[in-house]
């Protein structure tokens, strides 16, 4: 099954590219962003801990249940895409990655840039 | 009346509602949050919109979780003062204000106080160096755009002040931006306030260390504020702009988070900004991720002919913008991705929004 993996992956991604319009405007893609969605456990068993006789736990904000990863809450309206610093820094720390961008700069190959 | 759910794209919904003249209703604004309903910055934005428009009606329910907004006319005008508070940066207010001001009755001149650099929103240096030139070009303006930084303010206390001047237009010209060009030089501003003036130089060193591998023409100005102009909190950061041979500008910025547990040195902040700039260049397109939404909006508001742009991978915010443009202005973009460069050509027939209230000169 591994043999055609590359082909299948390529097919999948080209398919997705063709469907970008559907992804942007279609019904399927419309929904709350991942950061807004509650964890599945929270949705399925909202009252499972109702048996506990702990008053402190009876009312608790649902927002606090969210994972600590990802952008801080309240960023649902921000034009700047949230990215973790260390991830960006790590991605561009290596010289090969930086050299890969050479042709996007005037110091690179102008002919290669023309083709874009 | 258009109905929406949730607090996402709050600014865009208000701005598009005002520009299209269609009333909106938003329900379910953070109903389950620890502090439910509208937050401080959203209430502040509503007050700012009340200041620049005439006759808008805003109704909010008791808990603040739903809002009805009936837009009025944009009058713009001089002498608008607004305290933005400290929960979001001044950039949060500048972006919607810039769009509204274009379709105002008279040129806008406003003074905004609050956090000018740092936090999640674009800093004022980015707005001055990239957003204003972009607006000038896409809106076909000659002059009259200006952002003066009177004082800088870092989070958490802010204390900065900027003065914004924006002219108004009758209608927008067509947009055709498909040539990315090659990066020919990098400019930037490193700012520091209430810290050692040396911090700005260290920021420059960090950023240059990364950028000089690819380009020699890197120049970063240092801007150390002192006294009253330095705001109420210490802070430093750097904004970098890559200018291409076709005149496009891509920007990235990074600011130190001084109050937070994870401390980073000034060099690290500079390197982070440079890495973010490389990221923007590698994404491609005529605008950086921060300005995708603005470019798309100006396309959709443009004349009823083909407006085309080329962008890198769309951010979630840009996708949300596309959906709102369809809802408010009935403008659908045709999206043509290019496999090899992983850029996207987006074209649309604009809504032909005209400025009905502009005084006849």
TrEMBL record, chain B:
CDD domains: RNA_Cyclase_Class_I. It holds the Pfam family RTC_insert. PROSITE patterns: RTC (PS01287). GO terms for biological process: endonucleolytic cleavage of tricistronic rRNA transcript (SSU-rRNA, 5.8S rRNA, LSU-rRNA). Residues 3-335 form the RNA 3'-terminal phosphate cyclase domain. It comes from the Eukaryota. This is RNA 3'-terminal phosphate cyclase-like protein.
């Amino acid at each position: 099954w591994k043999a055609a993996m590359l082909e299948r992956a390529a097919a999948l991604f080209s398919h997705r590219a063709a469907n970008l319009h559907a992804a942007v405007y279609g019904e399927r893609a419309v929904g709350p962003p991942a950061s807004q969605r509650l964890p599945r456990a929270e949705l399925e068993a909202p009252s499972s801990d109702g048996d506990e006789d702990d008053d402190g736990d009876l009312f608790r904000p649902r927002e606090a249940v969210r994972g600590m990863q990802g952008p801080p809450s309240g960023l649902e309206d921000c034009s700047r895409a949230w990215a973790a610093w260390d991830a960006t820094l790590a991605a561009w720390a290596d010289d090969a990655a930086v050299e890969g961008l050479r042709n996007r700069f005037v110091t690179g190959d102008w002919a290669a840039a023309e083709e874009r | 009346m258009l109905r929406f759910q949730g607090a996402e794209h709050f600014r865009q919904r208000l701005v598009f509602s005002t520009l299209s003249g269609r009333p909106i209703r938003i329900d379910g604004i953070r109903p389950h949050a620890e502090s439910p309903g509208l937050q401080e910055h959203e209430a502040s934005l509503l007050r700012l919109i009340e200041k620049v428009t005439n006759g808008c009606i805003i109704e909010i329910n008791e808990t603040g979780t739903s809002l009805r907004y009936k837009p009025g006319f944009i009058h713009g005008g001089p002498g608008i003062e607004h305290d933005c508070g400290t929960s979001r940066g001044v950039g949060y207010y500048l972006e919607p204000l810039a769009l509204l001001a274009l379709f105002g009755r008279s040129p806008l001149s406003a003074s905004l106080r609050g956090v000018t650099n740092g936090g999640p929103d674009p800093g004022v240096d980015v707005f001055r160096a990239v957003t204003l030139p972009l607006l000038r070009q896409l809106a076909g303006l000659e002059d009259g755009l200006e952002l003066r930084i009177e004082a800088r303010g870092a989070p958490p206390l802010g204390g900065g002040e900027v003065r914004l001047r924006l002219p108004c237009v009758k209608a927008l010209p067509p947009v055709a931006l498909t040539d990315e060009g090659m990066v020919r030089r990098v400019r930037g501003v490193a700012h520091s306030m209430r810290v050692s003036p040396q911090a700005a130089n260290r920021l420059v060193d960090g950023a240059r260390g990364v950028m000089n591998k690819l380009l020699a023409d890197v120049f970063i100005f240092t801007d150390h504020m002192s006294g009253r102009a330095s705001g109420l909190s210490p802070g430093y950061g750097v904004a970098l702009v890559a200018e291409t041979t076709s005149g496009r500008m891509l920007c990235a910025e990074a600011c130190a988070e001084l109050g937070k547990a994870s401390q980073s040195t000034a060099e690290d902040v500079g390197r982070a900004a440079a890495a973010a700039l490389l990221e923007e260049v590698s994404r491609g397109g005529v605008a950086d991720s921060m300005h995708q939404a603005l470019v798309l909006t100006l396309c959709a508001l443009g004349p009823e002919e083909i407006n085309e742009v080329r962008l890198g991978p769309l951010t979630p915010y840009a996708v949300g913008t596309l959906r709102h443009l369809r809802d408010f202005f009935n403008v659908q973009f045709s999206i043509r991705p290019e496999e090899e460069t992983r850029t996207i050509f987006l074209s649309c027939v604009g809504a032909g929004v005209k400025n009905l209230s502009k005084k006849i000169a």
